Amino acid sequence: MLEPIKVSLESLNLITLAPMLIAIVGGLIILCIDLFKENLDKSLYVMLTILILVVDFGLVMGLNANERGFFDVMLIDGVSIVSQLLIVAGSILFIPLGLTSKRFHEYEYPEFFALFLFMVAGFQFMAASDNLILILVGLETASLALYTLIAMHNRSDSYEAAVKYFTMGALATAFYAMGSAVVYGLTGSVELYQVAQTLSSRLNEPGLMIAIFGSSVLLLSALAFKLSLFPFHTWAPDVYQGASAPLAGYMSVVPKIAAFVVSLRIFGMYIELGVEWVRVIILIIAVLTMTLGNIMALVQEDVKRMLAYSSISHAGFVVAALALDTTEGNTSIFLYYALFMFTNLGAFAMLWISRHKQRRFDDRFDNPYEKFAGLINIMPMGAVIMALFMLSLAGVPPFSVFWGKIYVMQAAVNAGYVWLAIVMGLNSAIAAYYYLKLVVYMFLKEPVKSVDVVYYNLSKPLMVIIGFATVATVGAIFYVQPLISYFYYMISASGY
Amino acid sequence: MENILSVLVFFPAIAGLLGFVVNKESARVYGVTVAAIEFFLSLWLWFAFDNNNAGMQFVEMIPLIPDFGVSYYLGVDGISLFIVIMSTLMTLIGMISMNIAKNIKNMVITLLFLEMTMVGVFLSLDAIIFYLFWELSLVPMLYIIGAWGGPLRIYASIKFFLYTFMGSLVMLVGMLFVAYIYHDLTGVWSFALTDWYALVLPVSYQLWLFAAFFIGFAIKVPMFPFHTWLPYAHGQAPTIGSVILAAVLLKMGTYGFVRFSLPMFPDASVIAITPIAIISIIMIIYTAMVAYAQKDMKQVIAYSSVSHMGIIMLGIFAMNAEGIGGSVFQMLSHGIVSGALFMLVGVIYDRRHTKMMDEFGGLATVMPKYALVFGIMLMASVGLPLTIGFVGEFLVLIGFYNVSPIMTILAGTSIIVGAVYMLSVYKKSFFGPVTNEANRTLQDLDAKETISLVPLVLIVVWLGVHPKPVLEPIDNSVKAMLSFMDEKAITQEAKEMIKVAKSTQEIK
């Protein structure tokens, strides 16, 4: 006869679940509001979403580091707190981009906001667990919500993007599940800390390496899909192109933070165990990703596709930091994405305000370079701001991404990988070309067509967001110090 | 005024921001006024400067990112003082002489931001802040060349940007490595130059780091074979762009060698003397010959710039007080003279919209004042005694004579070859009968051009006759640097090579 399982409520430590529950309950509330009263304006939902996320943010801030909860599947360490803060902050920054002056299909549905909140909760689960199954659940919750959000943009491209992303995502999930299964078969556990213990005691067994190789290749492929690393990056430009600009910007930052946390937990463990070739593989992937991402970005004719390839290249930068396996390297992952977030927010918001129902410039692309030609004459402030974002992405000091880049490069140098730092430097120089291309179009060329195009969607809330992104990009030098010290403290406290 | 350096750096930037509000018609006057105030502020710095103190003065330090060792750290010594003054002067003169009709407001604002970055580069004592201004200076220049330049302007501006950007990223890795070593040895993160000076590095490290910094600086100088961006940039840039580029931006590279490479890597620098001297001599002779072959007046001056930068490089690597002091002086003189020459080419270009020498001839009879000023500047460029060009070139050659007489003689041919191409420019354009009818009605220098050129002529003659007030502070700081390098050098060859004893005043 089965014993009844007795679990005391205290041992569950439910507070560790509170942030995600807030997001989920918030999503349900939004759905309920829609039941009671129809045709409410999107501004209400945007503001509600922001409020719910603010509460979420506050709860994450209040968590104590190094706790476990809910049958020990929840892991609240420094990494999970920092990454959850970034995820929630990124979501807060991107969701107001719905407040355009023109109507867009997806924002008319309250379901959009509910799904958005579920997605945030999913990412938070990914970041706050070292249980391979819970990570999978979080990953799938978030991904399925994200596919739907993309498709809601209601254009043929968006469906294409969503289906493409879904197919690739399903494949990645399958890889992930198989990889986890191998890990479970090896060690009899899906809890990474137990996996690490078991593996470290058995590392000398013959034949074990093959199994580790199998599991890590499968898991690496799965996460490389999510992080859009070479050679699993091919979906990214199409999906970015099909998705609305705010979602594309969002995708280039927030899901990657969550996926980086998972990679950090899994591959950090392997590297820690002394499986040196995992590091080598990641380094090779990193160099290939940043170089090929850059080279492909060079030939793009559409700004959004260019930004997609550029975000692939940036991911390559950061994944190199992952391979270093030093506290500085791990800190730099989060620092980089925090700083990258502001700039990308601004850049995609600038694309978003120029979004048109019809494609006026090109049959294929929404944002060809020609669209921005001569922007300095049409909208000088907009051109200057967009140029700031581009220079920041190119790594020109003192804008925000520069500090991320320099910190990653410093981490590489400190870990003894000077060649890696040089590769990063040369890649930044290649990247400067395509960012400059847009600057050149905006500043040095004459406008091609009629002019109202570029600030079509501009509204006060969007101006606030863009203004915020600009200030955060330009003034990075003043807040890098607290960011570094906080991130470094949290990450070293959790032992990475 | 303790924080005059911050004022110097940020005054143009703030003025640039406020400039967005200024009306288009008034933008030019605004720009000239701001540049004049900035120039007087830099003169004030000179008066407040203590000539007997060889170290850093007016030092300001505010930690910005203490966990990463980055601080806002400014200071000025005899080496940077005059380069800063020269930068503000050339910006002012450029602003006065500027002859641009299109988008003048954008140009004024851009120039003011450019001035901030130029002054910032020469005053920063923190490597990251230095790098920040260094990179930032590319952006306004990109815009100036790309927006107001000739037909190939976009190609030229992007080439300029990418070339320098690439080099400086390699330099950045070098900086990060130095910071890493510093942290390794002391346990503290610091990018402060004065802290880095204290590092005594093994020769192998020095060589690698020297190479990393060399790539960054050499592209900027530009040293052969990295000089190919410069003729394009000059050829396409508007007059004001060429003036600033030649007068100030190129000096960032040579200044970088003096400020970073020499004191930080004395042994590597001594080892690098011969290769760099060879490159410099190639620069001097080869580009002088290329200059002779040009048909475009502006290209002649562009290539002559490269040639003169070779002299400066040679002086820096003479490793003695005459050479380095002479180089710093030559930076000033080249800044003023080449700036003036580009302005003069701009004058004739505004009138005829061509820079081809075969379009001209006999200009001296039509435009006597113009011919006179051009002649003086040309002589100064060649290095005629009693002009500013002579002092620097002479000191450099004397300094390098101690290192290698043969190479010095080779480098000395620069004066001859320089005279050949410069005089041929003068002959083709100014002497002889007026062949082209279009030239007959050309107007001589107008008031604006006279006002901007006469001060430069006066400086050329004044510093040519009496360089002491400028040479003395330079000399003090250079000697302090040399004795410091001497103490720091590990290898015996380096110690022998770095000569401290002789002083420039004895020669004068």
List keywords for this structure.
heterodimer; A: 496 residues; mainly alpha; two-stranded antiparallel ribbon; 21 helices; globular; B: 508 residues; 23 helices; disordered C terminus
What spatial form of chain B do the alpha-carbon principal axes imply? globular
Q: Regions of chain B with pLDDT < 50 over 5+ consecutive residues? A: 502-508
- The total of helices of chain B stands at 23
List SSEs of chain A in N-to-C order: HHHEEHHHHHHHHHHHHHHHHHH
Which strand order does the major sheet of chain A show?
1-2
Biggest pleated-sheet summary of chain A? 2 strands, antiparallel
**SS elements, strand count of chain A:** 2
As a percent range, the share of helical residues of chain B equals over 70%
How is this structure best described in words?
The complex is a heterodimer of chains A (496) and B (508). With 496 residues, chain A is mainly alpha-helical. Chain A has one domain (13-493). Helix content of chain A is 73%, strand content 1%. Chain A has 21 helices and 2 strands. Chain A has helices spanning 9-12, 18-36, 42-62, 78-94, 110-127, 132-151, 156-187, 192-202, 208-227, 235-242, 245-251, 254-272, 276-298, 303-324, 327-353, 375-378, 380-394, 400-414, 418-444, 460-474, 476-493, and strands at residues 67-69, 74-76. In chain A, strands 1-2 form a two-stranded antiparallel ribbon. In chain A, strand 1 (67-69) and strand 2 form a beta hairpin. Chain A is globular. The mean pLDDT of chain A is 87. Chain B has helices spanning 4-19, 27-48, 78-97, 104-123, 127-136, 138-148, 153-186, 193-197, 203-220, 229-236, 239-264, 266-271, 273-293, 297-316, 321-352, 363-366, 368-382, 388-401, 405-430, 447-465, 468-488, 492-497, 504-507; strands at residues 57-65, 70-76. Chain B contains 23 helices and 2 strands. Chain B is globular and about 70 Å long. In chain B, a hairpin with a 4-residue loop joins strand 1 (57-65) and strand 2 (70-76). Chain B has a domain at 272-508. Chain B starts with a helix and ends with a helix. Chain B is mostly helical and 508 residues long. Chain B has a two-stranded antiparallel sheet. The chains are: A mainly alpha (496), B mainly alpha (508). Chains A and B meet through helix 18, helix 19 and helix 21 of A and helix 5, helix 6 and helix 7 of B.
